[in-house]
From TrEMBL:
Keywords assigned: Antiviral defense, Exonuclease, Hydrolase, Iron, Iron-sulfur, Manganese, Metal-binding, Nuclease
Keyword Plastid: no
Enzyme's top EC category: hydrolase
Function field: CRISPR (clustered regularly interspaced short palindromic repeat) is an adaptive immune system that provides protection against mobile genetic elements (viruses, transposable elements and conjugative plasmids). CRISPR clusters contain sequences complementary to antecedent mobile elements and target invading nucleic acids. CRISPR clusters are transcribed and processed into CRISPR RNA (crRNA).
Record-stated family: Belongs to the CRISPR-associated exonuclease Cas4 family.
Entries under PANTHER family matching the protein: CRISPR-ASSOCIATED EXONUCLEASE CAS4, DNA REPLICATION ATP-DEPENDENT HELICASE_NUCLEASE DNA2
Gene3D superfamilies, per database record: 3.90.320.10
Pfam families registered for this protein in UniProt: Cas_Cas4 (PF01930)
Name this polypeptide is given: CRISPR-associated exonuclease Cas4
TM regions (residue ranges): none
């Protein structure tokens, strides 16, 4: 598989946040920055350079490339901790993803992290049962268990994203204040304007159908 055939791990998080945002970024190659994305970039600066550090019982690798050719996904893990086992068996990988803000009601961050675990399992042929999300606003880790439900949601999201990117079509806009007002792409997306346009088109189509 060439690099272009791999779906970026970040696209899974973008898709669950908003399919249109995902397409604008990964199909149309659009990007804009706001305060939230700038804070996220600064938070990632400490883990953007590949290096290995050790502390008792743990080996930490930052900016680790990941891929699963069978699933067609790939990207860079912020941190992968390799925890030593008391029985001397192979170290257990433990991915850690850095996020600005605080834990969210949706599972987009968890799916991105679980996809990293799937890549690690494919690459290293060892089980990866758990990982963690580190949130910059709370300065705390949130442990994530990769149970069957999360793995199934992750696989479904991978399939949906790859299908959308394969078609290469950007979904229509629909304004939702809580989601859209925080998005750095709001001026490119124009959800207020395009949502009204979609409403007008639907009204015209409905009336044309009624007149036939």
């Amino acid at each position: 598989m060439g690099d272009a055939e791999f779906t970026p791990l970040s696209a899974l998080q973008h898709y669950l946040y908003c399919p249109r945002q995902c397409a604008l970024i990964h199909v149309e190659q659009q990007w804009a920055e706001n305060r939230q994305t700038a804070e996220g970039r600064l938070l990632h600066d400490r883990v953007d350079l590949p290096k290995t550090q050790r502390r008792p019982g743990v080996r930490c690798v930052t900016a680790m490339p990941l891929a699963d050719a069978a699933l067609g996904i790939g990207g860079i893990a912020d941190v992968v901790e390799f925890h030593a086992r008391a029985d001397g068996a192979v170290e257990t990988p433990f991915p850690v993803e850095y996020k600005r803000g605080r834990p969210k009601a949706h599972r987009a961050d968890e799916v991105q992290l679980c996809a990293q675990a799937l890549c690690l399992e494919a690459m290293l042929n060892v089980p990866v049962p758990a990982g963690a999300l580190f949130y910059g606003q709370t300065r705390r880790r949130q442990d994530v268990t990769f149970d069957d439900a999360l793995r199934q949601l992750t696989l479904q999201t991978i399939a949906a994203v790859r299908a959308m990117l394969g078609v290469g079509q950007t979904p229509s806009a629909r304004y939702e204040a809580r989601r859209c007002d925080a998005c750095s792409l709001i001026d490119i997306c124009q959800p207020h304007l395009l949502s009204r346009a979609n409403g007008v088109q639907a009204w015209i189509a409905r009336h044309l159908q009624e007149s036939v």
